[in-house]
Amino acid sequence: MIKKTTPRKRSTRRVTKKTNAPKDILNNTPSISKKENNFKNYLYLGLIVMIIISATALMITQNTKKKNQQQKNQQQVVKQQQKESSCDKKIIVKDNNTLDQRIRQLISINSSEKPIMVPVKDPEALKVSNPAFYKDVNKQDVLVVYKNDKAILYDLKQDRIVTAISIPMQAQTADQGKTDKDNTISNEASPDQKSEENKENSTIQSEKAKITVLNGTMTAGLAGKLSKQLKAQGINVIKVGDAKLKDYTQTVIVKSTDQSMPATLKELQKLTNAPVVSAKPGETKIQGDFTVIIGDSTSE
Q1: Residue 239's closest CA among 210, 217, 216, 279?
Q2: Cα separations in angstroms, 76 against 24, 69, 71, 82
Q3: What does DSSP assign to residue 228?
C-alpha cells in the first residue's frame, strides 16, 4: 500500500538582509533640506551685508556733498565780503570831497587847489618808476596830486599819509620848460614872498601858522625843549613828537603851505638856524604849515 505524503508549506516570511549603509543614504530627504536652509541663510546674510554697505556709502556721499556745499557757501560769503570791501574803497576814492577834507585835516593844503586822485593799481611798477617816492606804496593807496602844492600818497586802509612832497617849484619849472631844481629851497625869499614881507600887518599872530616839532635824532627830549622856546615867542605849536626817520644830520624846516608866512618863517630860522627843505620820501609825520625836524647838529 502506497503512503501519501503531504508537501511542506513554504514559509511566507521575508528575509531582510542586514546592511551597514548610513542613514542619510537611506533617507536623502533630511540632508537635502539642511543644505537648502544653509544656502538661504547665506543668501540672507549676503543681502544684509550689501544693504549695510550701500547705506554706509550713501551716508558718506551725502556727508561729502554737504561739506562741499558748505565750503562753496563759505567761499561765496568771502567773495561777497571782498566785493563789498572793494566797493567801499571805490566809494571812498570816488568821494573826492570826503578824502580831500581828510587830507586837509592831516596836512596843510592851499585852499584854492583841487585834488586829482588816482587809485594805485600796480605798486611794483610805481616803485620802479620812482623808488624814492613810492618806496612804501601798497595796493590800497591813492595818489592825490594838488598841482601847484603837493603830491601825496594816502593809505586808505590805515587812514594815514604814506608820503608827501611839495611840488610848487617843480610845477613852475615844468610850465616854464626849465630843468628841475634841487630839493633844498633857497633861504632867500622869492619876489612874491618879499612883497608879502613888506606888508605891515604880517605878524606871527596874524599868520596863525601851525607848527609841528619832530625829533630826528636818537637823543630824547629835544623836540619838547625846542617846542617851549617856540611857544615863548608866540608860535602856535600843534604837535611834538619823533620823526619817522632818524637820519637827519642837521635841523631842517619843511614848508607845507604855499602861503609865504614870512614872520613865522623868519622867527623859526632865527631860533633854529635851519634851511627850508622838501620832505624826505618816507617821512610821514609832516603836519601843519611848517614842520621843524631836529637833526644831530642841534643835539651836539
Answers
A1: 210
A2: 74, 10, 9, 10
A3: H
- The pTM of the full predicted model, rounded to 2 decimals, is 0.37
C-alpha cell at 35: 543644505
Longest dimension (CA), the chain: 203
Taking the C-alpha atoms of 86, 117, 288 and 239 in order, what is their torsion angle to the nearest 10 degrees?
A: 10
CB within 8 A of 272, min separation 6: which ones? 226, 251, 253, 292, 298
Question: What is the C-alpha to C-alpha distance for residues 289 and 104, in angstroms, rounded to an integer?
Answer: 11
Contact by Cβ (8 Å): 162, 137: yes
The C-alpha atoms of residue 278 and residue 290 are separated, in whole angstroms, by 11
Query: Beta strands 252-255 and 276-277: pairing type?
Result: parallel
d(CA 192, CA 183): 20
pLDDT digits 0-9 by tens, 126-183: 888 888 888 888 888 898 988 878 889 888 888 888 888 887 544 444 444 444 444 4
